[in-house]
Amino acid sequence: MRALTMFLALAAAPMTAAAAQSMNAETFHQRATKLQKKGALALFSRGEIKALMTEGQAAGKRAREQRLAALKAGSKPRYCPPEGPARMNSDEFMQRLAAIPAAERARIDMTEATVRILASKFPCAA
User: Fold this and answer.
1) What does the DSSP 8-state code read for residue 19?
2) Spatial CA neighbour of 62 closest among 78, 75, 74
3) pLDDT tens, 65-116?
4) In whole angstroms, what is the distance from residue 21 CA to residue 35 CA?
5) Nearby residues of 73 by Cβ (< 8 Å), 6 or more positions away
6) pLDDT tens digits, residue range 36-67?
7) Largest alpha-carbon pair distance within the chain?
8) Which CA distances in Å does 5 have to 12, 78, 122?
9) Which residues partner with 67 through β-bridges?
10) How many Å from the N-terminal Cα to the C-terminal Cα in the chain?
């Protein structure tokens, strides 16, 4: 899905102002999975695509802000992306999100889920 793939650029690049987060990671996972199952018909779910993209962008922006704040404070960030653009397609993102147990996803917001996903993909050197 092209629309969901665009969401995944969230972690590597600065984001424009995004709305406040309103869903936990489990809700996001369920809604995105349902949308993916629609296949090409998902194009008719523009409102849902927009809601998920907004949520993902807000999570990416906050994850990036947390990483930059940790660096500024002299602390070790939780993830260390490579220089330049870092990419993750929607399938990889959803696989990594699904790897977080459902009970955990229900307790964390998308910012925390995104940080965990990025930490697993871009671990910091010891």
Assistant:
1) P
2) 78
3) 999 999 999 999 999 999 888 888 888 999 999 999 999 999 999 999 999 9
4) 19
5) none
6) 888 888 778 888 889 999 999 999 999 999 99
7) 47
8) 13, 24, 19
9) none
10) 36
- Using CA atoms, how far residue 14 sits from 4, 47, 56, 63, 88, in Å, is 18, 23, 13, 10, 15
CA distance 69 to 110: 18
Contact criterion met (CB below 8 Å) for 122 and 39? no
With tokens 């779910």, the residue in question is 45
How far is it, in rounded angstroms, from Cα 30 to Cα 125?
33
Burial of 86 (0-12, 13-18, 19+ CB in 10 A): middle
Residue whose structure tokens are 């802000």 = 65
Contact 7, 51 (CB under 8 A): no
Question: Which tokens go with 71?
Answer: 């660096």
